Amino acid sequence: MARSAVRAPRGAAHPPLLLAFAVWGLGAALYLIGFFQRVAPAVLTRELSAEFALTAAALGNLSAVYFYSYVAMQIPTGLLADHWGARRTLALGGMVAAAGALLFGLAESYALVAFGRFLIGGAVGVAFVCMLKLSTHWFEHARFATITGLAVATGVVGAVSAGAPLRWAADAFGWRPVMIASGVLTAAVAVATWLLVRDDPRDFGYRSHAPERRPGAASHSVLGGLRAALRARNTWLVFVINGAVAGAPLTFAGLWGVPFLVTHYRLSTATAAGMASLLLAAWAFGGPVLGALSDRMGERQPIYLVGAASAFVGWIVVTFVENLPLAVLATLLCAIGFASAAVMIGFALVKESVAPALAGTAGGITNMGNMLGGMLLQPAVGWVLDRMWSGETADGVRVFDLDAYRAGFMLMLAWMGVAVALVLFTRETHCRHLVR
């Protein structure tokens, strides 16, 4: 895609969808890789626990260190996307993520493996916010929730690839070569991003979809923009709500669901990883479907509420109903995944509650809330499991009983209950900007 090949008279027309998706898609590629890396420890629990002699709490912390740096990068990423540009931010993030993946695959100590995870989390943390920023410029506003849903779907495809496919690859080639290969692929995405992505269609000679600033509209400094985004009520509410609705599947499918299914449903690790992948696949499918439905209805809050409440009920059943038939369990996990895709409605609510120029900053704050759930819940559940461990092991790895998992999963259920109640206090935007 040479720049000269797509140049058109300035302002002549909006960019064609194919070009818009090509630009946006490179950001989506880094987001997909980020989700793959986020979920990978859930499938590699046996290898990581045995090789580095990890307790449940230590394994939880190894998985969650990704979230520590990811969450820490969200507000800086929003500020960078608004003031430095999505292209530069994505390319730099991709190169750092590649270095982290290579370190993770080559490290011989727990400290270095954890540092590799830390680098990966902070670096891929730029992807989603930059995708939101690019979508503001490259797609019309009426498509925003749909595009955000596709973004969620893209990421979850990465998570699904870290389920049964990663298990197969790790069994066939070893977990280290697979992680090293992921680092090489990430570096290639970073180079392609630098060469092909542009922040705005005007760089290719097309008209931008970004709203024009109204005469007299406030101009914000970096910190002023942050303060303005934080003043919106929806920003704070969605921050807490999305932490629960996204945090629960990230905790289950991202770490503790596979050992739970292996222990209590007597599944193989590969089959359990496949079951967890069903949840993530349904999450991927639900994102664009719920986004398109919200755009068509012209409302955000009803879908947000129904999705959060349905996921809450589903998690209660998974946690407290024993020995579900596998077909019922699989259907239930799919329903939970689909309902959990309502998190993307939160992104639309926040974007429409702040000035368009603050889209990156607001998206960063919202995504920070998304990742906060996984960051806090994964190690917290591991801590509860260790407290209730009976001493049983299998091949040197701790085994936990059903009561231990129920106690651990109660943490995510409590947060989910609060989140459902808070949805009622969000401000409906009717799919339009409340602030210009």
Q: What strand order characterises the main sheet?
A: 1-2
Main β-sheet description? 2 strands, antiparallel
The global form is globular
Rounded average pLDDT: 86
CATH architecture: Up-down Bundle
Radius of gyration: 21 Å
The gist of it:
This protein has helices spanning 3-6, 17-43, 45-52, 56-83, 86-106, 110-124, 127-138, 144-161, 164-173, 175-196, 222-231, 233-264, 269-297, 301-320, 326-340, 343-351, 359-387, 402-423, and strands spanning 393-394, 397-398. It is mainly α and 436 residues long.
Mind explaining what this structure looks like?
With 436 residues, the protein is mainly α. The protein has a single domain, classed as Growth Hormone, Chain: A (Up-down Bundle), CATH 1.20.1250. It has 18 helices and 2 strands. The chain has helices spanning 3-6, 17-43, 45-52, 56-83, 86-106, 110-124, 127-138, 144-161, 164-173, 175-196, 222-231, 233-264, 269-297, 301-320, 326-340, 343-351, 359-387, 402-423, and strands at 393-394, 397-398. Strands 1-2 form a two-stranded antiparallel sheet. Strand 1 and strand 2 (397-398) form a beta hairpin. Helix 8 (144-161) runs antiparallel to helix 13 (269-297). The longest helix has 32 residues, at 233-264. Mean pLDDT is 86; it is low at 1-10.
